[in-house]
Amino acid sequence: MASISKICLYKPFSLSFAGSVKDQTLLQRCNFPATCILREQVPLKNECRVFARMPERTGTGVSTYLRETGTGDNGDYARNDLDISHLISVLKFCGGEGCLEFGRTYHGLIAKTGLDGDEFVNTSLMDMYAKCGDIDSAVMVFNQMPRLDVASCNCLISGYANCGLFEEAFRLFMNYESWGNKPNSYTYSSMLAICGTLSAIEEGKQLHAQVVKMQYLSETAVSNALLTMYCKCEAMADAESLFERLPQRNIVSWTAIIHGLYQHEGFEKAMRLFCLMRESGIEPNDYTFTIALASCGNMKNIDNCRLLHGLVIKKGMALGEFVGAALIDMYSELRETDDAEKQFKEMGNLTSKVSRNALIKGLVQNEKANEALDAFSEMVRKDAACDEFTFSPILKACASLPSFMSCQQIHAQVVKANFDKNTHVGSSLIEAYTRCGSVEDAEKVFSRISAPDVVSWNSVIKAYSQNGNPRRAISLFRRMIIKGFRPTGSTFLAVLSACSHSGKLQDGQEIFQSMINEFGVSPEEAHYSCMVDLLGRSGRIEKALDFINNTPIKPTASIWRPLLAACRCHNNLRIAEFAAKHILAMDPNDATVYVTLSNMYIEAGLLENAENQRKLMKLKEITKEPGCSWIEVNNKIHKFFSRDRTHPESEKIYDKLKQIMMLIKGTAYSTNADSLQVKEDFCLYHSEKLAVCFGLISLAAGKPVRIFKNLRVCTDCHMFMKFASMITDRVIILSDNYRFHHFNKGGCSCGDYW
């Protein structure tokens, strides 16, 4: 008997086709069994050996090989000598690896040899085409089959499901009996999976009834599919009831119900069932442990988490890719970042993209943005693969600082990794650039996203809303609706903020009404607060008060605060006192209320009342948050406080400030300059002025100066920035706790409406 090495043509090799969408390492990891060979009576020809040794093969090479081996011209030769099991194995491999061109070549060979009448071969062809995403070819094969059995129908249903064509899958299922077939257990498992994906609970229940009638419930694959379907449809009562009545439960059954409970925040129940599973003699696998660790972390019980960690170590799974990452997630959820980092280090060389992503996400989640950036830098240094689950959280870290330079550097990595068109990464990039005040970069990112979703649209609308371009924000909002996207609560919040920031009262009121009447989105606290701000800023103080009194929800401190701010702006002391009373009833330690009232009393000449506010603050030990500004220079954040002299460059900073003040006083705009001079002693050394002066002496000429402040910018500093942008011919971007101000050539993007 000839040895396999002499007769097996299709040993592992690499093959690529001209015009294929990616390099095909087709059979590199596939060791076919002895049945997948030419008939042993036929020795391997010389041209076969040459073909098998070719490091790269083109379509021409395949054609030459088929012609010279006789499979191209002599159908009888191939029909006699090709093993069907070999064909099925190759087609299965093509489907698994997405090798469509190679699969098409074999389809041609099958047609030439007359094997296209074999139902097993045809079913394999359908499966290959469907898995490669060419569902039309799969349907063509299906329609040409002389006889349709249940296997071929099941195969096409799976193909439709894989391609997201769920209606076609249901239609095919309804026609089973017309072809003389009855659905089997595999059919019901596939259809139940589709119902779960679509959250089609009613259809799922009808299938459940059929499963019971056909007596398939005893088959674990079907019962597990039912269980998963109910969990995905959020019908946990049905899922739990079904689980209790299951005749047989395996690890998949237990894991499905535990996972369902976890997804619906039934963490205690999930852990209770985890314990019951072990008591019943079934030991958890990696996936079960992953869910249990996540549930335990969400319960916020550190002792139970450590016990579970001990069990994982005992089972030898602590260093596994997914369990190890779940441990990092668990400790991050508990805010125990030291333990999370310790687990990561213990994994050593076994760390993977999954565990690195978990560490970065955990650090960002626990407001350790700089440490997250360090972890990301380490990934880049080690040339570790990054994906959307790496880039999205690290961009959140950039946004939280915010760090424009880091954002640009990570954006370069995104482009390098070909994720610049990814919807999720793109949305995170837009958010990061928005927080850095670079709306131009945010717009460029949005234009490159291949398939923007509602989140992407919301992000770019928010970018223009916060950066002083309300017209563009409203225009994008309307364009989004025209393109068929349904706005969400976040969309309306962004566009209402744009109206509020610019005084577009009529537009804001119309959009608010359309939110309720046209799109059926229920307003939340933030929307009501935004509308109060819109009315109050435009001077409609009484209407703002009426709006609050008529809201269908109980007004919160967040709804009353914009009314107080509007009263401060329009000097309405009576309503300010009324609003302050309501805020302090809900938040008695809100320092801004006392300070605002004190300032209003001083301006009204009620000095005794102002002093009483200060005494109340002292008595209640309430302190106002100190103003703080920061700027990024050479990848380092520099912080400043009012009258701060701790910075190494303090002398140069104060000299620059005095220089600018002298130039301002020498301008032709004497009225505004005199206003600045009156407040000089009180406001001259505010933190944002120190920060901008440091930027002017540290950054290259012509480079924008980006300043961030934790409190709202005062009128004096706002005026100073306008003059400074004109005198120094610099763009100055200042972000306070409410919005961005873009100063350029003596003007501000807010139009002095803030």
TrEMBL record:
Residues 677-754 form the DYW domain. GO terms for biological process: RNA modification. One of its GO terms (molecular function) is zinc ion binding. Belongs to the PPR family. PCMP-H subfamily. The keyword Repeat applies. SUPFAM superfamilies: TPR-like. The keyword Acyltransferase does not apply. This is DYW domain-containing protein.
